[in-house]
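Students often ask why inverse folding is considered easier than folding. One informal answer: many sequences map to the same fold, so there is more than one right answer. In these notes we will look at a single instance of the problem. The structure comes first.
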C-alpha cells in the first residue's frame, strides 16, 4: 500500500478529517480530546455501516484492531487503514512490529506511550484540536495538528560540538565537515543513546543530529530534556540519505518526483519506513 489517503468520519455532531501519507501515524494527546471517540465511530461504522448514522469516506477500508485475537485478525486485514486505540498493549510488542512490518496496511496508533519497536517519524505524530470551522448547530470539527512541527531553530546555530545518532556513513560525513570547521563530532551509536549524552556533555553549545524518519519514539523524552539546556539544539533531517538525494549531487530522472511525493513510491509491505526506502535508492 502506498499513496496519500483522506479520511473523513462524520456524524450529526462530530466531524474528523485528516490525510495519511505514511504507514505509521501516531495520535497523542490528553484525555477527552476525541481520540478514542474516533476509533469508536470507525468500529460502529464497520459493524453497522450507514445504519450507524455515521458517514465514513476513504479510498481504503478503515478497520479497528483490538483484543486478544489481534494476531489472527491482523493476518486477515489487507490493503486497509488499521486503527488501534490506546490500552491495547500488544502495540508495544516485538510480535506486533514483526507482523506489521510484512503487511500492506497503513496504521493509525492512538497512544501516549513511546513505541521503540516501530520506526515512526517525528512528522507523523499528531494531536486533535477543535477547529473554529464548525460551531453552533454544526458538527464539532476535529483536525490534526503536528505536535512537533515547530522544532526548527529560529536563529543560526554555531555549535562547538556535534553528536550524531549515526555511527556509519552519516557520522563519517558530518565528521569530515566538522574537521574542516574545527568542530568536535562524535557518534552516540544509536538513537536511544543520544539522550544519555545530554546531561553528560559539558560543552556548549551542542547540536544533536538524528534521522527524523525513525526518531518518533525518542522525541518526547529528548524535547523534555533539552528544555533544561537552552544551548543544546536538535536537527532532524528526514535521514542522511534524504540529505544526499536532495543535494543535487546524485542524478536520476525520477529522483525529483520521488522527493516531492515519496508517499507515491514507498510500498509499505516492502519498506517499513521512508528511511529504509531512501537507503535502497
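Output (designed amino acids):
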Amino acid at each position: 500500500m502506498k499513496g496519500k489517503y483522506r479520511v473523513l468520519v462524520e456524524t450529526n455532531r462530530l466531524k474528523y478529517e485528516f490525510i495519511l501519507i505514511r504507514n505509521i501515524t501516531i495520535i497523542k494527546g490528553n484525555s477527552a480530546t476525541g481520540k478514542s471517540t474516533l476509533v469508536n465511530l470507525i468500529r460502529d461504522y464497520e459493524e453497522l455501516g450507514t445504519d450507524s448514522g455515521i458517514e465514513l469516506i476513504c479510498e481504503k477500508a478503515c478497520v479497528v484492531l483490538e483484543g486478544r485475537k489481534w494476531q489472527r485478525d491482523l493476518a486477515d486485514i489487507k490493503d486497509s487503514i488499521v486503527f488501534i486505540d490506546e490500552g491495547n498493549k500488544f502495540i508495544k510488542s516485538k510480535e506486533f512490529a514483526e507482523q506489521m512490518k510484512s503487511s500492506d496496511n497503513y496504521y493509525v496508533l492512538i497512544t501516549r506511550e513511546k513505541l521503540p519497536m516501530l520506526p515512526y517519524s517525528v512528522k507523523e505524530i499528531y494531536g486533535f484540536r477543535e477547529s473554529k470551522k464548525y460551531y453552533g448547530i454544526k458538527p464539532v470539527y476535529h483536525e490534526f495538528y503536528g505536535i512537533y512541527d515547530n522544532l526548527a531553530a529560529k536563529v543560526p546555530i554555531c555549535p562547538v560540538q556535534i553528536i550524531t545518532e549515526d555511527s556509519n556513513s552519516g557520522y563519517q560525513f558530518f565528521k569530515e565537515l566538522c574537521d574542516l570547521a574545527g568542530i568536535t563530532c562524535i557518534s552516540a551509536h544509536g538513537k536511544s543513546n543520544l539522550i544519555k549524552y545530554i546531561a553528560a556533555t559539558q560543552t556548549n553549545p551542542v547540536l544533536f543530529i538524528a534521522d527524523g524518519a525513525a526518531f518518533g519514539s525518542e522525541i518526547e523524552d529528548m524535547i523534555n530534556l533539552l528544555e533544561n539546556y537552552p544551548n543544546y539544539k536538535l536537527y532532524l533531517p528526514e535521514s542522511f540519505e534524504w540529505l544526499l538525494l536532495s543535494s543535487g549531487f546524485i542524478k536520476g530522472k525520477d529522483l525529483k518526483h520521488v522527493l516531492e511525493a515519496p508517499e507515491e513510491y514507498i510500498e509499505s509491505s516492502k519498506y517499513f519506513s521512508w528511511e529504509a526506502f531512501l537507503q535502497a535508492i
